[in-house]
Amino acid sequence: MRKNKVNIPAVTSLKTALEIYYTKIQLNNADVAELFGNHAQSTISALKKVARDYMTENKIMLYNSRDVNTKAAYAAWGIDIAEIERRYKKSKEIERV
């Protein structure tokens, strides 16, 4: 149950969401901005707070006070990586037609 009230923006692209998920262990402000597009720093901070709270609730170690764990952040933000992969694969199939 999410205690923080922040609207989770849509990801900028399926490809970007996949690239960030598979290439970053921790997410910093720039990564969050790349994932969701340009938003106010307060929005990025609020998104990271949601991820940090999720990490605390699930006993996921915080290695850096400025960054959040990628897998935990995606889960906290409701980003289903399997669904993103499925949709991305399907979009590539459609492009080939």
The DSSP helix count reads 5
| Helical residues, percent | 55-70%
The radius of gyration computed from the alpha-carbon positions, rounded to a whole number of angstroms, is 14 Å
Would you report the number of β strands?
Answer: 2
Beta percentage is under 5%
- Main sheet overview: 2 strands, antiparallel
Q: Biggest sheet, strands in spatial order?
A: 1-2
Structure description:
The chain has helices spanning 14-23, 29-36, 41-57, 70-76, 81-96, and strands at residues 26-27, 68-69. The protein has a two-stranded antiparallel sheet. α1 (14-23) crosses α5 (81-96). It is mainly alpha-helical and 97 residues long. It has five helices and two strands; from the N terminus they run αβααβαα. 60% of the residues lie in helices and 4% in strands. The longest helix is centred in the middle third of the chain and has 17 residues, at 41-57. The mean pLDDT is 94.
